[in-house]
Amino acid sequence: MTDRNEENLMKEFVTPEIVEQARKKAHRLSLVFRCLTAGTLALFIVLCCLIRTGNAGVLFRVMVFSMIPLGWACIAVYALLLRPARGNAAHLAHLLSGEQHVHEGRFHLSEQSFQIPGSARVRKATLTPADVAPARVLGGDVPSADPPEEIRLNFDDAWTNLAPPENALVRVKTSGTYIIGIEPLESAPAFSPRKRNRWKSFRRAFSLLFPGFVLWAMMVVILGGFVFNQITDTAPRSKITLYADLDGFTRSADLAAELEKAKPDPIRMVQVHPFSYALFGSDALKSADLYIVPASHVEEYRDWFAPLPEAFADEKNVLRLEDVPYGLLLSDPASDVHIAGAWLPYPDEPCYLFFGAASPHREDQLALPVVQALLRLP
Question: What is the pLDDT of residues 181-204, one digit of tens each?
C-alpha cells in the first residue's frame, strides 16, 4: 500500500470539533425541553387559578385538549431528540478519548442495526484481509505481529449514508471496536449514500413513544380531573349541593354559578349536579342539601327528604306527604308553572324541590337563601 496523508484523506466521524458540536446540540435541546415543560406546567397552573364554578367544565376540557398534546410534545422531544443527543455526545467523547488504531481491508456493513443500551445505535462491520500492511498503533513505530484474518467492528448507524460501497478497499481508524474514520484506498466512489429504511425508523419511534403517549393521556384525565375536583370542591359544611333528577340536564354549572350569587357566609360554593353524576351510589347524593325530583319518582327517594322549613311551609302548591309539607312546586304543565325553566329541562309532569334529610345544613338553614334565589329565576 502506498503511504498517504491519513489526516487529509480520511473522513473522520469523531473529532474535538464534532464532539463540541454534539455537546452544544444536547445543551440546546435541553433548553428547549425545559422551556416546553415549564410552559406546560405554567399553563396548567394558570388554568387552575382561573377555575370558577361556572367555567370548571369548560376549563377542564381546555386543560385536557392542551395538556395532552403539550405533554406528547415533551415526550417526543425528550425521547427522540434530547436523550439521543445526550447519549451521542457522551458516546463521541468516549470514542475520542480511547486509544486509536488504523486497519485496512475490504469493508462489509450489515443491514441490521441494534441499540446499545445507554449509547448509540450501531451496525456490525467487518474488514476482510487484502494485500495490506499490518495494523499499527497511531503514532507508534512497532508494527503488530500478523494482520488479523478478519476484523469485527462497530459502525454508528447515524453514519450509514457515509459508508463506502460494499467490499470497497478502505483504511479505517478505530477507537476500541468503533470505526471513527474511513479512507478509500481505491478509485471506486468512496462514500456512496445508502438508503435507510424510513418505515422501520418510523415504527421504531412509534413503538418507543406510544406507551408514553397513552400513559400521559390517562394521567392528564385522571390526575387533572382529581386536581380540578379538589379546586372546585370543599367540605360539605362549606357548600350547598343540589341534585336534579332531570334527563338532559346540561346547564348545571351555569345554574350553580347563578345560585352562588346568593350564597350566605360561610358557604364557599354551590354545586348543582344531575343524579347521573352520582350514578354509582355515591353517599354525596344521599346527603345532598336540595333535590329536584319529578312527581313520579318522589316515592322512590322519599327517605332522603326532610319536611319543608317553616319559611316555606305556607307556600302555595306545596306537596304534602301524610299531611306534612315536603316539596315546593317548581314545574307543572297543567298550570303552566315553570320556575327556572330557562335552566332546568322539566319533563311533562310536576316537579318539586325537596330539602335533604341528611343535609349538613338542616339545622343552620344556610340553604334557604339559595332556594329563594332559585325560586326567583325565570
Answer: 999 887 655 444 555 566 666 777
DSSP-assigned letter for residue 150: -
**Which pTM was predicted?**
0.70
d(CA 105, CA 77): 40
First to last CA, the chain: 100
Q: Cis peptide before 266, with omega less than 30 degrees from 0?
A: yes
Q: What CATH architecture applies to the domain 236-375?
A: 3-Layer(aba) Sandwich (3.40)
- Res. 142: pLDDT tops 80: no
Q: Which of 307, 298, 273 is nearest to 352 (CA)?
A: 298
Residue 322 φ/ψ region, left for φ over 0, alpha for ψ in the -120 to 50 degree band, beta for the rest: left
Q: What count of other Cβ atoms lies within 10 Å of the Cβ of residue 187?
A: 6
DSSP annotation of 3: -
Distance CA 176, CA 148 (A): 15
Residue 103 CB burial class (10 angstroms; 0-12, 13-18, ≥19): buried
- Contact between 11 and 181 (Cβ < 8 Å): yes
Sign of CA dihedral 217, 221, 223, 228: positive
Domain with CATH 3.40.190.10 in the chain: 236-375
Mean pLDDT of the chain: 86
Predicted confidence at residue 7, as pLDDT, reads 46
Contact indicator for 148, 173 with CB cutoff of 8 Å: no
pLDDT digits (tens, 9 = 90+) for 15-42: 999 999 999 999 999 999 999 999 999 9
Residues of the chain with CATH 2.40.50: 98-194
CATH of domain 98-194: 2.40.50
In 164-282, alpha helices (H): 198-231, 252-259
CA-CA distance, 53 to 267, in Å (whole number)? 13
179 half-sphere exposure, CB direction, 13 A CA radius: 33
Q: Is 212 helix (H, G, I), strand (E, B) or coil?
A: helix
How big is the CA angle at 210 (ends 209 and 212), to the nearest 5 degrees?
70
Q: Which residues contact 87 (CB under 8 A, 6 or more apart)?
A: 118, 119, 120
C-alpha cell at 220: 392528564
